[in-house]
Amino acid sequence: MTAPTVPSPARAGRAGPAVLRSWLARRLLLGVAQTAGVVLLVFALTEALPGDAAVALAGDQPDPARIAAIRTELGLDRPAAERFADWVGGLLHGDLGNSLASGRPVAGYLADGFGPTLLLAAITVVLLVPAGVGLGVLAARREGSLADRLVSSATLAVYAVPEFALGVLMVTLFALRLGWLPPTAVGSGGDLLAQPAVLVLPVLVLLSRPVCSISRLVRAGMIDALRSPYVRQAARYGLSAARIRYAHALPNALAPAAQQLARTVDWLLCGVIVVEALFVIPGLGTVLMNAVAERDVPVVQGLAVVFGVIAVALNLGADVVARRLAPRAGVAA
After folding, report:
1. Alpha-carbon distance 331 to 328, whole Å?
2. d(CA 263, CA 259)
3. pLDDT recorded at residue 55
4. Closest-CA residue to 254 (of 321, 195, 206, 313)
5. What is the mean pLDDT of the chain?
6. Over the stretch 129-140, which tens digit does the pLDDT of each residue have?
7. pLDDT at residue 13, rounded to an integer
8. CA angle at residue 71 from 66 to 74, to 5 degrees?
9. Secondary structure letter of residue 5 according to DSSP
10. Cα–Cα distance between 295 and 99 in angstroms, integer?
């Protein structure tokens, strides 16, 4: 009778990195394909926008000859395929184009709006991670208790309220009725850190729904992990409850939460148009909204491509983190 063959640690060590490299290569190729799809989709959608930039630039009483001259000057009379090829060629060299309305490089608009949006996003994420994970772990530890029911009910109720409605309610209560906080960022001069009070209400609105979604994901993941066979086996080995909970169960619960966090960061960095418009914050969302109103196609295209690339990169990073936290789930992927 032949003894069973046990794979050596060296072979297992070589197989693990090989599988990881293969998976990572597939994800990178998928990311490249997604980026190409984003570029194509952005151009097609901006081509379908109603109105004509040349008409908007010609003034209130446009002369047909002037409109034709503007279209020729801006290259709008060229075939769409030719303009798409030139635009993609510029993107490959890091050139996002120039604004039709002002002639400024699109990168300048990004530089103007990126600071306020990044500041809001950074503060929101710094508060989001401990709040979301903490609430999820609290509810999972006390599954079925009053605390669990309160957390679950509150997160469900808050998640059901749109950001715009919640923002209006907060402005009405804390700014207009109580007078505790400024209602908008008007008067801050673009330097939001100089008046930190103007950030409180926007950050609370931005936190509201992501905290609810992440806490519910962590709660569900923790409950599932705490009921799994490997946790029961760890308990039989005599490991402490805290070590089982935070060293073994929590990493597996964080895998789906990491992907949700990436989507949240993408949403924040890509300009929260509703929140920035409500609180008059000069971020990327405001820049994009103004560009759409002015039919400034290069600005819309440049911002949309940057947003798309950020989304692809963040989701790729989230997949890598999720696989690192829960490698068993990554094998299937």
Report:
1. 6
2. 6
3. 65
4. 321
5. 76
6. 889 888 888 888
7. 41
8. 120
9. P
10. 10
